[in-house]
Amino acid sequence: MKSIVYYFLLLLTTVSYGQKKILKTNAITANIIIDGKTDEQAWQETDVAKDFVMFEPDNGKPIPYEKRTEIKIIYDNDALYIAAIMYDNEPTKILKEITQRDSFGTSDLFGVFINGFNDGQQDFQFFVPASDSQADCITTDANGEDYSWDAVWDSKALITDFGWVVEMKIPYAALRFSADNKQTWGLNFFREIKRDREKYTWNLIDTKIGSFTQQAGILQGIENIKPPTRLFLMPYTSFYLNAAEGQKTYGTLKGGLDIKYGINDAFTLDAILVPDFGQTKFDDQILNLGPFEQQFNENRSFFTEGTDLFSKGNLFYSRRIGGSPSTTIELAENEEFIENPSAVNLINALKISGRTKGGLGIGILNAITEKTHAVITNTVTNVTRREVVEPLTNYNVLVLDQRFRKTSSIAFINTNVTRDGAFRDANVSALTWDLNTKTNTFGITGSMKYSLINELEDKKGSYADINFAKTSGKYRFNLGADLVTKDFDSNDLGINFYTNFYSFFSNVNYRILNPTKSFNKLRLNWNGYLEYNKETGALQDNNFNVNTSITTKKNNLFGFGIGVNPLEVFDYYEPRVADRFVVIPRKIENWIDFSTNYNKKFAVDINTRVTFLDEPGRAIYDVAVGPRYRFSDKFLLVYNFNFIKNTNDKGYADRIDADFNTTTPKTIIFANRNVITYSNSISGKYALNSRMTFNLLVRQYWSYAENKHYLSLSNDGTLTDFATYLTNKNSNFNSWNADLSYAWWFAPGSQLSLLYRNSGAGFEREINKHLGENVSALINNSKLNHVFSISIKYFIDYNVVKNKF
After folding, report:
1. Lowest mean pLDDT segment, chosen from 227-231, 479-483, 646-650
2. What torsion do the CA atoms of 205, 206, 212, 216 make, to the nearest 10 degrees?
């Protein structure tokens, strides 16, 4: 009888939650203190959101009564106020690891998701863990969660004898909504009970449906609000102390200002004057033997916060701005560099972004970098000269993104790079679409891109892609194709590795939507990919693979797969010469991944991959191990080790050009080589409290390529011995980075940070195969650079200052 009642309640709940829930809020005039106590009278006079339902793992199951959750919302002209009471019959077991901002750790979690336009397209999400820290992000179905976005808001979490309580104040400046007198917002609440690995929402998120943001409830009752002027100033000052062997220790004092201004309720201007990115995370450099540049993550907050619009069309790679110079200088005989800048300084930047009530998103980004010179000297005559490696340059991005029918959008994107003088200019435009059925069951996505490069002569190219997908249910699939012309080039403000091909791809997958007796989650995938050279029709790539990922009942993750390239292919990029190619043999690869439950104090990640090519002794072995130990809610250490062995690899080494004889073909030299890579890293944090943390990040990297013998590339793509080539083209690259930092969020939006960094890198042709000697040689004082910095950023709200005076 008990089970019958339970399943009846489950069915009733599932049916009822198929409709959008509605929560009504009340306006207040009283002052609310954000202390986690919710004892003000205003909290007692408003409606309650309750009856949460499970999102994962058992989608649709009602929350147990002993873990019931009750939420209230009130508002005034400044902000929304949210009170969440989360009951727990075992409050001493609530997990509450303390982490820095935007990192959840092993902690229970409460979140509120707000869509001020109620268009099912974009959520502003605010989270408070039981440890009392904060996290926030912008979420779209197309791009997922973007935690680089940071808002300024207030919160407090308290553990009680009946569970835990969260109180939040979210200023309207942290949201986007229309100017209507009567507001209707999309709304959902989220709760995660970490020890049970269970996630609940107020309005049901049906996992059979491919959209998350379109399944929100509704907030009503906000009327006639008069939001204050959204003007925020963030002045900063930084001091850097630099030291290195062979140079005098010197200090640098910097100062600048970030500005945020609400043009209206929907649009915001962000600007940086005299930027300082000295405390951003270091880049994980590698030994790059391939034909394409290494792509780095963006760590500068201005270019990561709220840039979801600018990611449309994949035309914007922000590391181009203030990155490497766009030109190189050829040295004459007896010349060497005195100064050869590796990066260009950013003068200033601004962006405007927002969305109208009618769903039109507008994004404008503009940045200017300074004129940059290299200084060169002649070692015989001692004459020096200065050459421009990057002129004064303007970068601009424009995005127009129209959403409609809550499930679809069409966007136009244009990127433009204008360099002063007779240097290269570039303009790239794209039209993209994401069209979905009203029920979000099927969708068509795609784009048309066009590039125009103005150098000695105009170069024009195009890129087209289309994808059709079934996006809901247990069984899902997608089919698509790409077509890229030879002269398409988006690399002045984007990143695109190769062109001149057309391809076809497909995916079929199956997933369980509710736990079984054996698994909490299970997903099976089949993928297929074929790629052809556009001009010759030669096969450039092919791959077919099956893989699965499983979450066990004990919440351990396990995955494995097998992939095959059943046909040999023609690589037109590795030779580094137009219209030449090298034949790549067939191959098969296998991988196994394993990750234990992070709820436990000790956990470990293990990833292994083995690839065999259809050539004697040619294989790739890759293993990564990452144990972690949580000593307490304050102290966590994570170690990662990665070893890669690539035996009998065939790769580009050199090129011998014929002198004064254009009829003689170029000789392209390849190397038969072994490539060995070791990487070790340690990351850790010690939290004094939810606003103060010490953080450690250390990375040691060593990779070498030992050439066993050299080969020449024939016109048919095969390789033959070339014993007369005697130049040493071995590669031995070491790098070391260590950051020890302290961060204190002493007020909302205001931070004091201290950083000690030492780093070094070295490249040689001679190989020393002793790991310890390579590391010790790199980290001695003669090769390390040392930086100590202190930075203070203070958040100033114009309205607070105005009210005080």
Report:
1. 227-231
2. -40
